[in-house]
Amino acid sequence: MIDKKTQGKLEFDKIKNLLINQSYGLGGKAKIEAMKLSNDVNEIEELLTETEEAMELYRFSEPNFLAQLPIINSYLAKARVNGVLYGSELRDIYRIINAARLAGRQFDNKSNKYNRLSKYYLNLQVNLDLLKKIDNAIHEDGQIRDDASPELRNIRRKISNSRAQIKSYLQNFIHSSEKQKYLQDSLITERDGRYVVPVKQEHRSEVKGIIHDESASGATVFIEPLLVVEQNNLIRSLQNEEQREINRILVELSALVAVNYDDLLANQDILHSLDLIFSRARLAYKMNAYRPLINKNGVTALQRAKHPLLGENAVPINLQLGKKYDILVITGPNTGGKTVVLKTLGLLTLMTMAGLYIPAQERSQIAIYDHIYVDIGDEQSIEQSLSTFSSHMSNIISILKGARENSLVLLDELGAGTDPIEGAALARVILEELQQKNARVVVTTHQSELKNYAFQNQRVENACVEFDPVSLMPTYMLTIGMPGQSNAFSIAKRLGLSELLVNKAVNMVPQNEAEISNVMRQLKESHDAYERSNRELEAIKQELQIERNTLEEEKLKWQIEKEQLWEKEQNEIDSYVRKIRNEAEEAIKELKETLSQKQEPPKWHEVEKSRRKIKVLGSAQKPSAKREWMDSVIQAGDHVLIADIKQRGYVLSKQNNEYTVQVGNMRLNVKAEQIVKIAELEEKPKPVRNQSFLEKAQTIAAEIDLRGKMVEEALEIVDKYLDDAALVSLSSVRLIHGKGTGALRKAIQSHLGSHPLVGSFRNGNLNEGGHGVTVVLLK
Asked: What is the pTM of this model?
């Protein structure tokens, strides 16, 4: 398993601190402190699913029921042995029960969607009877309420009446012109729970009563007048009765707590576990992290991974291990980021084993190991009189004894701290031993011999962290497949060392080393040239793709325009036919009128004229409206354009003169004259364009997430979204802006107040996201 020393070297304790900062209460913090790492893939998948479901729930409503939850273990243990709980302790127990009630309310009707979290929520036991009894008896500040019982209410009323009588008498006493000359001040005070008046020392004998106290200077004595002694004694007696009744109430409630000991303890554990889970979700949002894909095959593939403690400015790395190679040898300059690569890999692996999302691109892979061994940093031990090299070697010997097939080994500056030749030889045999054990290894080094070892052996690969020889600064970029170059000569030259001395040093390098260095430099230059060419080709490919998409759009536009022209021509033809028909009907009418005239013989020249007109009109041909761009036959599988709605689809079947056409995820039945056959278009990324009505209707969601947007940007998005929602006749939508400071919510709601499409709006209900969501009803 992963020991505490390894976790410390990889700074996992700092990740725990980040997680603690996201927790809601002491119980969650305690759960985080006691958090265990798992190497069981199924268990880790469950932990990651918990995090995923919590992130989804957190989008709509924050689990405020977890805020400031107490730890009640000691109270429950006290009640279990017939101890009497204080009011404040009972109120803490009330908070646990009430949190369980609120948690169940938040999760109501969601168990089908959140299968993993439902195991927590559905196991919460809410004892409403105990909840009400504590709330009716104990105030939020832990004091016993007056109406905790009829007896207590009666006693406190008597105490209140007695106090009022005493105060009334003493008010008359201190405002009496006869008594005022004896008093130091005209006020009533208390000493030991009894009402007294301040009397001047020299007049103490003039006021009959019991002296309870005197001032520090001795100038004032506090006397309880004899006429209120009996009432004060009555109050003291009533207070004793009050305390006995309070004790009875506390004993009764404590006994009920003891009866529900198991349920209360289980509720507390579930709520604190939920605190831990939601802390993981909040940290994932804070880090902009994603769920990793996990395996037990030793395959790691990180894409744009960042060290989680370096923030947004961290340089992302791409790293693979276990697929094509099992050992990665990283070389590069000091302070170039080699150690950061080791720590990033190790720390992201530990985070995954704790069920945390990682700051890497989506679908990055993390291998789960049985053991992780680390040798990083200065291991010099003054207490044991060990040098840095000796301490490193002791640690590596321990690693070699424990490492096996499903182990990850991270070694920093292997072979350093001793003679370079001997150090390189030791480093090589150490890597050979680890390779023989089938461990996964990432090692950083300055040893050139290890670069050669990576070239010469299967399943071993070189990598380097880049260095800019112009600025003399590391770029922190990791390049797989290339060893790091020695930049000592170029750096020395740029810093001002004379060219004569630099050339003299170059000539001192052994011939074979110089040749290897030249080969590596040429290889690096070729690799860089290849990368540049590859980027240029990719840019050209993208440009060609854009042009092709543009041409496809133009082709579709051309086809639509032709269809529109055909429709226009068809309308003109229909209009012409109607005109001819009307004229024919008029001619026939005239002929009938001529033949029906019986007053005089028919004027045959007029009859003949009408007959010829009808003959001409009857022979008129309907103009042709043939679509020359259509193929003669449309069959199943052909791609077509539906003219009426300007949408593309493909034919599923034909029945008589009607076709069934698949358009997106809809099936439409259309007449033959409504469709145009078009060439099949390859599925390529489409350029950004305005969506049609149907596309909007199919794709627009009933909510939009605006969290993290600036106000101006968010308002622009809201306007476009409301236009689209109104276009497809949505009645209501949700704008998710989060809670935060409330500035974004205020700006959005102020904007909605004057928006022409908005009928009304309101804050979301608890199950809709609360104040983190605005629900808009459209006109």
From this structure: 0.63
